[in-house]
Design a protein that fits this description.
This protein is 27% helix and 29% strand. The protein is of the alpha/beta class. Strands 1, 2, 3, 4, 5 and 11 form a 6-stranded mixed sheet that branches. Helix 10 packs across helix 11.
């Protein structure tokens, strides 16, 4: 009987390699773009098994994957009890087969593209490369991609870009290997968890969800990057805390700012506290006579159980005057003492 296995990434990624090592040849592999997509397919019976990366020897736990799994499994303790497989991870620098780039001269690289986790695992190599060519007109730009194999496929028609991926990706996508083993440690490995549909905590509860919108707003005293950062962190943290949400529940976020706020995008600071995988948009609020100045607003689209509790819309500081009819009282809300910036997700 053929086993239907889902994984995050594209053909040639490390998750696919781990699946082949674990099950052998009697499997049908199905790639997915996100961890949530894999788990959703498992819940709905499109696949019978899933394989997901949970730990890397260089960067530690794969936080985004843990969040998605906890949302579906019910607790972090259930992750610990799952079967696991570890495979060595050796990253290579790949380029277009006809690219003029050579191993002994990488000065013409335009962009280095890969999954955020792979970029972190090769941070020493990337840093040394950027330092080496700081005297040039332009050092390489680092671009985060949703998958290492996807990055390899992306550069198939780009002669000045390089991808960090497995050597197998060079064969799969017709690329050339410029340099092998560029990871920070030669003993680099990633641990994968093996899931079956029966591992999901409560399938009926998971599938019985609805889409809701949550509003929020906050004011700042000055138009500075730090003020916008502090306010964005305070507002988003208050919304999550007051509504008993985690970042994995957020589908998307739309920010607006009054025209007197120009120092930074609120979405930039949302990413800095771990909202890396949430689609976000920033826009300018309409200019209306007498409108509240120096104000950041947000509309969150959230996935919650159909029997969810009352929605709490959060208006903080001077923004409390905007919607007293729907605003949840946040007088007793205390921003967590822990520095939220230390919890940045590393995919």
């Amino acid at each position: 009987m053929t086993i239907l296995v889902g994984y995050q990434g594209e053909i040639g990624c490390y998750s696919e390699e781990a699946a082949i090592q674990y099950w052998g040849g009697n499997i049908k592999l199905t790639p997915h773009k996100t961890f949530e997509d894999v788990l959703s397919s498992l819940v709905h019976g499109d696949i019978s098994h899933a394989i997901l990366p949970i730990y890397n020897s260089i960067i530690g736990p794969i936080a985004a994957c843990h969040q998605a799994m906890e949302n579906y499994l019910g607790s972090s303790e259930r992750i610990d009890s799952l079967p696991k497989i570890s495979i060595p991870v050796k990253h290579a620098l790949l380029c277009h087969k006809d690219s003029p780039l050579q191993e002994d001269d990488l000065s013409l690289i335009s962009r280095i593209i890969s999954h955020p986790a792979a970029l972190l695992q090769c941070s020493d190599f990337i840093t040394s490369l950027q330092k080496k060519y700081t005297s040039k007109d332009k050092s390489p730009t680092v671009i985060e991609f949703y998958d290492t194999a996807g990055a390899a496929r992306f550069i198939q028609d780009k002669v000045w870009d390089v991808a960090i991926a497995s050597e197998r990706c060079a064969e799969v996508y017709g690329l050339r290997i410029i340099r092998r083993c560029i990871q920070d440690r030669t003993d680099n490995f990633t641990k994968f968890a093996i899931l079956e549909r029966s591992d999901i905590a409560d399938i009926s509860e998971i599938t019985d969800h609805t889409l809701i919108g949550i509003r929020g707003a906050i004011t700042i005293d000055e138009d500075t990057d730090q003020a916008i950062s502090t306010a964005t962190t305070e507002l988003l943290s208050s919304i999550l805390e007051s509504n008993n949400l985690s970042k994995s529940d957020i589908i998307s976020a739309v920010f607006t700012a009054t025209s007197d706020i120009r120092a930074a995008f609120p979405a930039k600071h949302a990413r800095e506290i771990g909202w890396n995988t949430v689609p976000m948009l920033c826009a300018t609020e309409m200019e209306v006579n007498g409108a509240l100045p120096m104000c950041i607003r947000v509309l969150l689209h959230v996935r919650k159980p159909s029997h969810h509790e009352t929605v709490h819309h959060i208006y903080l500081r001077g923004a409390r005057v905007l919607r007293p009819d729907i605003s949840y009282s946040a007088d007793n809300y205390i921003l967590p003492k822990a520095d939220l910036r230390s919890s940045i997700i590393s995919l």
